[in-house]
Automatic annotation (TrEMBL):
Keyword match NAD: yes
Swiss-Prot/TrEMBL catalytic activity: a ubiquinone + NADH + 5 H(+)(in) = a ubiquinol + NAD(+) + 4 H(+)(out)
Keyword Transport part of the UniProt annotation: yes
Function: Core subunit of the mitochondrial membrane respiratory chain NADH dehydrogenase (Complex I) which catalyzes electron transfer from NADH through the respiratory chain, using ubiquinone as an electron acceptor. Essential for the catalytic activity and assembly of complex I.
GO molecular function: NADH dehydrogenase (ubiquinone) activity
Compartment list: Mitochondrion inner membrane
Name this polypeptide is given: NADH-ubiquinone oxidoreductase chain 2
Family: Belongs to the complex I subunit 2 family.
Residues passing through the membrane, by range: 7-22, 28-46, 58-78, 105-124, 145-167, 179-208, 229-251, 263-290, 310-326
Enzyme class: translocase
Stored Pfam families: Proton_antipo_M
Record membrane topology: Multi-pass membrane protein
């Protein structure tokens, strides 16, 4: 199915704004790129107009505008060497990404957004802020702010997912939880966090694509769906949670090894406990959905086509982990 020319223009402009932020050499150009990113993403949220998407787009616009004001005002004082201003800029970037403790807007926003827009929100929209955070992260006060955010993301993301029944909210809290690992990788090494983010995007794309194709929005729908769909969705969620031998386990293992080598035991325990909480919920969800759906299994005429898509999903979850074993 061909994309409408206007949507293609918005997606192209969205990618262009990301490259503008990456290549900028002044905070004003960075701010312009972030604002372009906001302007071109709002129409994508409104592409399927209803009262929920209108509310979500307005909420997203207000949050992003407030974060942009924090960033541009604080950036004016960065040249004077005020370290506190770097922390304010970091806070603005964390707010833009929906990182804890500035995450409250994200779970409430996702209910009015399509799976396609969520894919853009969780993957493309975080590239620019993450790169800016990696540039700002230095020894001192910014490190302390980052550690607070890492702990908050790990716990708020895991506990929030435990109390959710909406798949979109579960994905939002999963995104918050993964942000703790990404930021921790950023503290350790640029290569580590880039590797983690790349693998995370691969697994997340696989999960969101499956939910979008099958039009799944809640745990009840997942339970009543085909048993094979439940199985693949369960494997996808377990990979997101970091269960071996799936792809999601590899980058978490790499970061865990580096944490132990650097004697960062407290952060290691916090991240590991958050991961165990997420895995507990995912495993429980898989057992319930697969067990109950076996009684409601219905074979459709399009089974062969769906099986091909699900096979591609499983390959994307497992094969990259085999590649990392040889590195």
């Amino acid at each position: 199915m061909l994309m409408h020319p206007s949507l293609f223009l918005f997606y192209f402009s969205l990618v262009f704004s990301i490259f503008l932020v990456i290549s900028a050499n002044s905070w004003f150009i960075i701010w312009v790129g972030l604002e372009m990113n906001l302007v071109f993403f709002i129409p994508l949220m409104l592409s399927k107009s209803n009262k929920y998407s209108n509310e979500s787009s307005l909420k997203y616009f207000l949050v992003q505008c407030f974060a942009s004001v924090l960033i541009i005002v604080s950036a004016l004082f960065l040249s004077e060497g005020i370290e506190m201003m770097e922390c304010v800029v970091l806070s603005g970037l964390f707010l833009k990404m929906g990182s804890a403790p500035f995450h409250q807007w994200l779970p409430s926003l996702v209910e009015g957004v399509s799976w396609g827009c969520l894919m853009v929100l969780f993957i493309l929209q975080k590239i620019s802020p993450l790169l800016l955070v990696s540039f700002l992260m230095k020894e001192g006060l910014t490190y302390k702010v980052s550690y607070v955010t890492i702990v908050a993301c790990s716990w708020f993301g895991s506990v929030g997912g435990l109390m959710s029944v909406s798949l979109r909210k579960i994905m939002a809290y999963s995104s918050i939880s993964h942000m703790s690992w990404i930021l921790m990788g950023m503290v350790l090494s640029n290569l580590i966090w880039l590797s983690y983010y790349s693998v995370y995007c691969l697994v997340l794309f696989s999960v969101l694509h499956l939910f979008g194709e099958e039009k799944l929005f809640s745990i009840n729908q997942l339970i009543l769906s085909n048993k094979k769909i439940c199985a693949v969705a369960g494997l996808s969620l377990l990979s997101l949670g970091g269960l071996p031998p799936f792809t999601g386990f590899i980058p978490k293992f790499m970061i865990s090894v580096m944490l132990l080598e650097n004697s960062l035991y407290f952060i290691f325990i916090v991240l590991l406990s958050g991961t165990f909480l997420s895995l507990f919920f995912y495993i429980r969800l898989v057992l319930i959905s697969v067990g109950l759906s076996s009684k409601n299994m219905i074979f459709a005429y399009s089974a062969n086509l769906k099986e091909n898509k699900m096979s591609f999903n499983i390959m994307g979850l497992v094969l990259p982990s085999l590649f990392f074993l040889f590195l």
